[in-house]
Design a protein that fits this description.
single chain; alpha/beta; Aldehyde Oxidoreductase, domain 3; TIM Barrel; elongated
Length: about 300
């Protein structure tokens, strides 16, 4: 798999500060305060290990977590595995060494980050594998954990998925609620008028997409020049195939991509992909991913 684009550290490191604040409070780790004085300077070694099968994500995040939460703990050279690598129960992800009391204090926050990221990566990898051999790509959505969007989008990339728009600020997606009340005979004209205003936007959108909920509005929006993607919301399998056929019959293959969205699961994603759509949007990648069970085991 191609190495995913890195995360912009300045956009997410404040999350570590918030996590530290909610866990440490103003008093710090009360339990560690009770340890014998010798423990305050003791050096320890730990292994970050997987407790279940999945795909790891967090090799870019772990060094920053340690720098912020346990600055005297280091990753042993050559021990940290790469993002997107498959793990099984017992797989050693990294070895850490340094001040024992610091890692005891940072352990939970560190694992919370890595388990969440690995969970998103793992679920994405399963959707990608389920649709392998088709032309469809798996995309995330804006259904992300508040504040975590950059990190979760990175985990999607590590799982072999693709990112949709980053937010409302970088692309145009005209949804059905934007067009509520527009009669079908006015739909194409209304969308055309909206797209005529693109030059007045403060930034150039990365792409223009329009959502439709049936084949009749789909035919209407295909009449509008300038749409790069049509989102087919909650279409049945046969309707997805028909939309692909209509698009191709109109000579728009390669000009307008079709994106299936709504009700996509691991059980049906392959059937969706086999209809010929180019894109499949899966909100579950970020809103329903279960954390991968990871642990820090002391070895010395």
């Amino acid at each position: 798999m191609e190495r995913p684009a890195p995360i912009d550290r300045t956009r997410w490191t404040r999350l570590i500060g918030l996590a530290r604040e909610e866990d440490f409070g103003t008093a710090g780790d009360l339990t560690s305060h009770l340890l014998p004085p010798s423990h305050a300077t003791a050096i320890g070694t730990w292994r970050l290990v997987a407790r279940e099968s999945g795909w790891f994500c967090g090799s870019e995040v772990l060094p920053v977590l340690l720098a912020e939460l346990a600055p005297e703990v280091r990753i042993r050279d050559g021990t940290l595995i790469s993002d997107g690598r498959a793990v099984e129960p017992g797989t050693i992800i990294a070895e850490l060494t340094g001040r024992r009391v610091q890692l005891l204090t940072a352990e939970r926050v560190l694992l919370n980050f890595l388990q969440r990221l690995s969970g998103v990566c793992t679920l994405t990898r399963r959707f990608v594998a389920a649709s392998a051999g088709t032309h469809a790509k798996i995309f995330d959505t804006r259904k992300t954990t508040p504040g975590w969007r950059d990190l979760e989008r990175y985990a999607v990339r590590c799982g072999g998925g693709h990112n949709h728009r980053a937010g409302l600020h970088d692309a145009v997606l005209i949804k059905d609620n934007h067009l509520a009340g527009v009669p079908i005979e006015r739909l194409a004209h209304t969308v055309f008028e909206m797209l005529n205003k693109i030059e007045s936007l403060p930034v150039r959108p990365q792409f223009v997409e329009v959502e439709v909920d049936g084949l009749e509005p789909f035919r209407e929006v295909l009449k509008v020049v300038g749409i790069q993607v049509v989102l087919l919301d909650n279409f049945e399998i046969d309707a997805l195939r028909e939309a692909v056929r209509i698009r191709d019959d109109w000579g728009l293959r390669g000009k307008v991509e079709l994106e299936a969205s709504g009700g996509v699961t691991l059980d049906n994603v392959r059937r969706v992909a086999q209809t010929g759509v180019e894109r499949i949007a899966v909100g579950a990648l970020t809103h329903s991913a279960a954390a991968v069970d990871l642990a820090l085991d002391a070895v010395a």
